[in-house]
Specification:
The chain is of the alpha/beta class. The chain is built from ten helices and four strands.
């Protein structure tokens, strides 16, 4: 059987946190800053003039270059941009941070010793509570069933109904979409803090991860970087109001 993750000492947990810090910095934060700095022209956005003006007035009480710029930027920078990047790079997380070796079952992301019950776990790892889709459900169930057959053939001590799990890196059980509920009818779905407790044996590890990521944001002085992008896009919009449907110019300029 391949080597499995067995994190049972404080030093091993410290090393994992350091690797998490490096992984998030290199793959997520730097790309997020680069992508944010690109958003200084209207060509970077797909715009619905009707909803854009409504949202700017609703959120900021006025239609100005600044309010339009913020309405365009904030959802992109705080939502879709970094969420997409996190999902795209999540598989590198398994290999660079957890040092997971390929499972003997194709498609199983990691195997680890559960620090709560001491059992060997076969884990399909997902990034977040909404990343599972309908097509994933039968694929994951088939993988777990193949482990059952493998265990019978090789006389492994595997209780498929409890040792085969879907692990969700962040979130809470109440955040899970309905496709996870389909998996949970047959196999455990372990989420966020509980997952990291089982991998590391430390019930504060999840909070430590969040703190690491927060400190990376302060390193990049993210607030000032975002404000700079808002200002640059605002200036562009001030000179080009027609690009957001204002052919007669800014109403409050």
């Amino acid at each position: 059987m391949n080597s499995i993750i067995n994190i049972d000492t404080a030093n091993e947990r410290r090393i994992i946190l350091e690797k998490l810090d490096t992984w998030f910095d290199e793959h997520i934060a730097k790309n997020h800053v680069i992508n944010t700095n690109k958003l200084v022209k209207i060509s970077e956005f797909n715009i619905n003039h009707f909803t854009l003006h409504y949202l700017a007035e609703f959120s900021f009480g006025e239609i100005t270059p600044q309010s339009i710029a913020k309405t365009l930027l904030y959802p992109r920078v705080m939502g879709t941009s970094i969420a997409t990047s996190f999902g795209q790079h999540f598989q590198t997380f398994c290999h660079e941070v957890l040092k997971a070796t390929p499972s003997i079952v194709p498609g199983i992301d990691i195997e680890f010793v559960d620090q709560v019950d001491g059992r060997h776990k076969w884990c399909q790892l997902k990034a977040g509570p909404t990343t599972l889709n309908k097509d994933d459900v039968p694929v994951i169930k088939d993988k777990f069933i193949s482990i059952k057959h493998l265990a019978r053939t090789n006389k492994y001590n595997i209780n498929v109904m409890s040792d085969c799990i879907v692990g969700v890196a962040y979130g809470n059980p109440l955040d899970l979409n309905n496709f996870y509920a389909e998996i949970a009818k047959d196999f455990p779905v372990i989420v966020g803090q509980d997952l990291w407790l089982r991998i590391t044996g430390d019930d504060e590890f999840y909070a430590a991860i969040l703190d690491k990521f927060r400190k990376i944001a302060s390193k990049y002085r993210s607030a000032s970087s975002l404000q700079s992008t808002v200002n640059q896009l605002s200036e562009y919009l001030r000179e080009n109001p027609a690009e957001v449907g204002l052919n007669s110019g800014w109403p409050h300029s």
